[in-house]
Amino acid sequence: MARRGAAGRPDLTPGVQIEGRHPVLEALRVGRPIRKLLVSRSAVPGPAIGELLREARRRGVPVQQVDPAALARLARTRAPQGVIALAAARPTVELADILAGARSRGEAPFVVLLDGVEDPGNLGAVIRSAEAAGAHGVVIPRRRAAGLSPAVAAASAGAVEHLPVAQVPNLAAAIEQLKREGVWVIGADAAARESLYDVDLRPPVALVAGGEGRGLSRLVRERCDRLVRIPMRGATASLNVSVAAAVLMFEVRRQVERGGGR
Fold this sequence. Notes:
Blueprint: E1 3-4, E2 16-19, H1 21-29, E3 34-40, H2 47-59, E4 63-66, H3 68-74, E5 83-87, H4 95-104, E6 110-115, H5 120-133, E7 137-141, H6 150-155, E8 165-168, H7 171-180, E9 184-188, E10 194-195, E11 205-210, H8 218-223, E12 226-229, H9 241-259
Parallel strand pairs: 1-4, 3-4, 6-7, 6-11, 7-8, 9-11, 9-12, 10-12
Antiparallel strand pairs: 2-5, 3-5
Helix pairs in contact: 1-2, 5-9
């Protein structure tokens, strides 16, 4: 039986919130340290909620029922779906950790770098696509970019629990580090001469996508080994960064499955 706080109000201490049924379930499944699970009393009973509660019990996570209005006030995303988990902060890793993870799996590194993506929804969507495409990690800068917020976790649909994210002080320096490790760095640029379909993108590879509106910064663009564009056939001149990154990542996956590693 779920426990209630006084008058249905959640008893909170500072921490990171994970919101939404699927992101919370993924966090529980991977053993993310969660202090408490808050469930709205108006949440519709069904398989999704039932699975969440069973997993919480299995992990020994306390469940507290709260008033719907209290949960709505607490939510930091638009669609918490009646569920909020109070968790420890999701730690970022070092770029070297992502490379070591690839080596431990006996695979050539496949990394995604984001140059100044500021929208949490876009960052979450890129992480989701990167995990689905088999990338080993995502790299983001510490400044002028979105961090690992509850909104990012929600937009990633739980993928952030499975894919390491490195936060680096300088993206250009991270590119140089990747080059020293033998990783081929490919930047996405709408003005590039080469189509992504004409370039060998098989790992070891790092894909670099620019931020909303401005694309790649000059320093990052200059450090890329090659620049590629996504051929556009319609009246639309460009794609959302998360969509463009997904197109690039799954072209990597297509080439790997077609012809093996580099």
